[in-house]
Design a protein that fits this description.
The structure holds two protein chains of two kinds. Chain A is mostly helical. Chain A contains 19 helices and two strands. Chain A has helices at residues 2-13, 20-28, 33-41, 56-68, 84-90, 100-103, 106-125, 138-150, 158-171, 177-185, 197-204, 208-223, 230-235, 247-257, 262-269, 273-286, 298-311, 316-322, 328-339; strands at residues 72-74, 80-82. In chain B, α15 runs antiparallel to α19. Chain B has helices spanning 2-10, 19-27, 44-47, 49-52, 64-76, 91-99, 111-114, 117-125, 148-151, 174-183, 211-224, 236-248, 262-273, 307-314, 334-344, 349-357, 364-367, 373-385, 388-414, 419-426, 446-449, 465-473; strands at residues 32-35, 57-60, 82-85, 106-109, 130-133, 165-169, 190-193, 201-208, 229-232, 253-256, 279-282, 297-300, 324-331. Classes of the chains: A mainly alpha, B alpha/beta.
Chain lengths: 340, 478
Amino acid sequence: MIFQQILLDIFLKLNNERTVSSAYHLLRGKRSGQTIQDVGIFSLHAYFSLLPKLTRQKFDGFVQLFAENGYLQMDDAGYYSLTSRGIEQARKGVPCTFDSWHYRGNEHIFYERLSLIVQALSHQSANIKAFIPIQRDEGIQYFARQFLLRHQYQSGALQVLLLQEITNSLEALAVTEEQRELLINRLTGVDLPGFTWQQLAYQAGRAEMDSQLLYISALHNWLGHIEHYPYLADIAQQLRISMPLTDSAYQTAKLFQQGLSLQQIASKRNLKQSTVEDHLVELAMNDITFPIEHFVNQEELVQVNKAVLSYATKKLKVLREALPHLSYFQLRLALARGGN
Amino acid sequence: MLEQALQKHFGYTSFRTGQKEVIEQLLAGRDVIALLPTGMGKSMCYQLPAYLLDGPVLIVSPLLSLMQDQVDQLKQFGEKRVVALNSFLTAEQKRYALHFLHQYRFIFASPEMLMQPQVKERLRAIRLGLIVADEAHCISQWGFDFRPDYLRLGEIIPKHNKPPILALSATATQTVLQDIERYLHMQSPFYFLHSVNRPNIHLAKRFFQQKDDKINWILEHVQTTDGPGIIYTQSRSKTETLSMALLERGIAAAAYHAGKEAEDRQFIQQQFLVGKLEWIVATNAFGMGVHKGDIRQVIHEFMPANIANYMQEIGRAGRDGQPAVATLLYADGDEQFSQFIVTEDLPKMQHIEHYLANGDHPMRMLDAGEISETAFRVLHYWMQQESSEAVQKRLQQMEMDKYKAVHEMLQIVQATDCMRERLVNYFGQQLAEKTPNCCQNCGLVFEEILSAKQTVEEPEKILTWQERLQRILLSSLR
């Protein structure tokens, strides 16, 4: 199962240093300092906010299954450790790639826009004036209407242009034929209703969740390669997250760029110093040009990297004991950079 | 001429049963209670008057999916002045809608929305042309889907210059009809009661000893007789497993329940409509808004909670007037399960205690997940109306009523005389004439009604994704 492999991959990357819950928060895309820092420290960008609607019940079911299969052991505090069997299974890898960090569920907005536009164009070619829109969200409906007007759909040429763009871009994409089919089979048109997840999964002999994951993977790949296709790029507008920060971290970033010190930012924003530190770590993680040398020098960075290797851990507590002259804040900055 | 108006606004040349009578009375300013079967053009009773009366028509509809369906329908006729006031609106959308409320032709609203002070105030300031209570049986606690907020609909009916009121329902007993008349303050309303009998739906039943035998019967039955059809079952997981079993036998089937994604629900409805699906395995969430005339079979894998539900669900078959069969499956002890299900959603005695313990913040019970939303709605309403002792009595009574309803349904199952006659009598009507192949007890030969399973057609050519996309976008070039 693909989902199983993803979950094992996350546990492998978290290196037995976090609770099982942190994997859950990661998949749901919890916007907390801890989760976001974990993304950087353990290189988990692919999975942040991959499944915003995942239920705890379902997640726990899989963890339970792992325990039963002897893939991992749990302790009372919620920490886990992968067994050699679990590690072996995890190393079999995940059969598709994701870029959740930059889309965070927005890939679904792209598809909702696209499917409504396609449905409308289908009815236009069949000369049917009214239909029940496949998307109920008024924001999506507004977008689709504006798109059609902007590109003079009345001329009747948009169908062919969009057909070419979709066909060409999908053919050039490094995804499987099954994934291309998933994308097109979820579209709906006159006399050609879309297929349900139950149907698609049944045809492929997969679990519904796995078909959905392959579909999301295909969407991430597609979105990453459509900038040269003007109509598709227009449909995808403003969905890629270029500065993926929490709002509060964004405010801190602005003040930092104006040259305020950590203490000044804390007092001006009426925040605890530790909170501002969280923000700066988040910044460092997202922006490789962030000047961490304000806080840690080159020599100290080298020391941290060596310690991570020799102790085979990214646990702050262990690193702090090995490098007592560095603060937790400095260690986290160093790790954030290491993650990129 | 009403027919001309009908042609002009909707493109139909003639009225269906009851529509004209109801509309004439409304235009003359009289209140109307109309009992019309679903799918027989109930909505036209207010849709056409909206173009002939001054002022917007307010339609109170307790079921969100139904409301959406009716809004879609009107939009398909090209009507733009439609608004639906429900909990899906954002604050911004709601402000806009309320500001321009008087300019709409159709205002749909849920009962809960109606009770919000700002909505109430706005509605009072407008001169409405007509007030419609859709699914009006929900107003009566004797109706099968009682909605307490619906009771307060009376509060928004103006005392002076009262517009006519139209109450619509497909299933209402005499008691329910009386409740509707009273709660809506109707003045000697005109009654249009369509016969609840659907002569082209033949009523079958089958008895089993084991529950599993029902499933085996279904699997055998769908392989030997033709659909399209609906199989009603009681749980979401059962819709999934049963539909899988059908798929594995090469039958085009799909599961349908309220837990499915909105898009999947639409895909299923569309596929069913264009004939790509033969069987839908569904919870009672399926049916509303399904406008398919040629449904030949409805199978109940379990016993419905009451007769009204049963009638509504079998009523989805044979809307084209052609013969159809409704088969009810019963295994020993099924009624115990039904009793459990029907009282599950009722508030219990301990909920009254918790309600009191939470003082001014009873909503905390909901947040804590102690009580379902439906149960809370009922409890909250009555706790505001009367003492906790009285509510306690009332809850006991409700439980008894639900049991009684299950029992009434069980009697239909166990009866040895005409099922049709019993059902029609239950709604206070008389059976005018007998139908051949009437029901299981009168004698019913499946083969005379259902066609045998057609030899499997050549499976449709599977399109490549490129071909499919091309067909969707360039459908005119097919």
